[in-house]
Design goal:
The chain is α+β, with helices and mostly antiparallel strands. It has two domains: about 10-140 and about 325-330, NADH Oxidase; about 150-315, NADH Oxidase (3-Layer(aba) Sandwich), CATH 3.40.109. About 40% of the residues lie in helices and about 15% in strands. The protein has ten helices and eight strands. A hairpin with a 2-residue loop joins strand 1 and strand 2 (about 55-60). Helix 2 crosses helix 9. It is globular and about 55 Å long. InterPro entries: Nitroreductase-like, Nitroreductase/BluB. This is Nitroreductase. One of its GO terms (molecular function) is oxidoreductase activity.
Length: about 325
């Protein structure tokens, strides 16, 4: 398989193929196949890995950074956190303990290093059953059912947040959701009025990262790049926000790369826990991509001491959805075993 080829076959993982009798480098390589199934902004997969015996270094691949939409690299760091969380959940499942070192990364430094230990005695506070959901979870862009979340489900979502620097807000008050929907519409209008933003979005659409066929992707790229779809997108996304039973917001106490990475880990853990309860999630990033809108969101939600990092919808849908394709792991390994 060509390492530059997008494919859905990466989702077809069989845990029985874990190389239990192979060196730890090969075992780490197997675990990374779960890491690359993590969500990322525009499905850009902005990560790079190196394996050195029991040490796995995670780098930001800045060739996949969304420089226009994600000017401060917030979404890039969140995406890396999602991949790290999948890796750690898989490591636990196959009997590893691990230690994570976070770095306030520069251009050439790793954002984190995960060191594996094979004694398997590490206790975990994660909700049960997350490993299976790594290959089941998907993002839905559909309208959600008019169905509220039961309290036990809400409790599980809150219990999924294990990081001291991360807080979760679950918003279901209609007036507040309406206000957030209005902010979403304003943010969509601003972004879609920016030709550079449309060009960047069009690139990822055009190469098939969002799962469309080659022909449909190229048509969609042309439409996105050359036409201002602000009215359509703002109306559609505002309705998605208002109609969702829950809007989730992750907030961190600081705004440095390690805090953002931890917020990404928290989101992926929450998304997997939601999937286990037949819920789906849908990130809504546009508000947070515009500093003034991000600040207004924090004010509306009542955040007095923290930074909004990740906004998303939560709900139920009967919509059937295929997984979006991924580039195979080999594309992201800087050294080959």
């Amino acid at each position: 398989m060509n390492s530059d080829e997008l494919t859905t076959t990466v989702w077809e993982l069989d845990q029985d193929e874990f190389p239990a009798d192979e060196p730890i480098e090969e075992q780490a390589r197997f675990l990374l196949r779960y890491a690359i199934l993590a969500p990322s902004s525009h499905n850009s997969q902005p990560w790079q890995f190196t394996i050195d015996e029991d040490r796995i270094q995670i780098f930001a691949d800045e060739t996949r950074w969304l420089e226009v939409a994600d000017h401060d690299k917030r979404e890039l760091h969140l995406s890396l956190g999602c991949a790290i969380e999948n890796f750690c959940i898989a490591a636990e499942h196959f009997g590893f303990d691990y230690r994570i070192q976070y770095h306030d990364s520069g251009e050439t430094d790793s954002i984190a290093v995960v060191t594996l230990h094979s004694d398997g005695n590490q206790s975990s506070d994660r909700p049960r059953g997350l490993f299976k959901q790594i290959t089941e979870r998907y993002t839905s862009h559909a309208l959600f059912e008019d169905r509220s979340l039961p309290q036990p489900t809400r409790d599980t979502l809150h219990q999924s947040i294990l990081e001291d620097v991360v807080s979760l807000y679950l918003i279901d008050e209609p007036g507040l959701k309406r206000s957030i929907g209005e902010l979403q519409a304003e943010a969509d209008q601003i972004q879609m009025n920016n030709s550079e933003y449309r060009k960047e979005l069009g690139y990822w659409v055009g190469i098939g990262a969002l799962g469309q066929s080659w022909l449909m992707a190229r048509i969609a790229q042309s439409v996105v790049t050359h036409f201002d779809l602000g009215d359509r997108e703002s109306q559609k996304n505002s309705e998605l926000v208002r109609s969702a039973p829950i809007i989730g917001l992750l907030v961190t106490s600081t705004d440095d790369p390690p805090a953002r990475v931890k917020a990404g880990q928290a989101y992926e853990r929450l998304a997997l826990a939601a999937s286990a309860d037949d819920l789906v999630t849908h990130p809504m990033s546009q508000i947070l991509e515009i500093p003034e809108k991000r600040e207004r969101l924090g004010t509306q939600v009542g955040i007095t001491d923290g930074i909004s990092q990740h906004l998303f919808r939560l709900g139920y849908t009967d919509e059937s959805q295929d997984h979006t394709p991924r580039w195979p792991l080999e594309r992201f390994l800087s050294t080959q075993l």
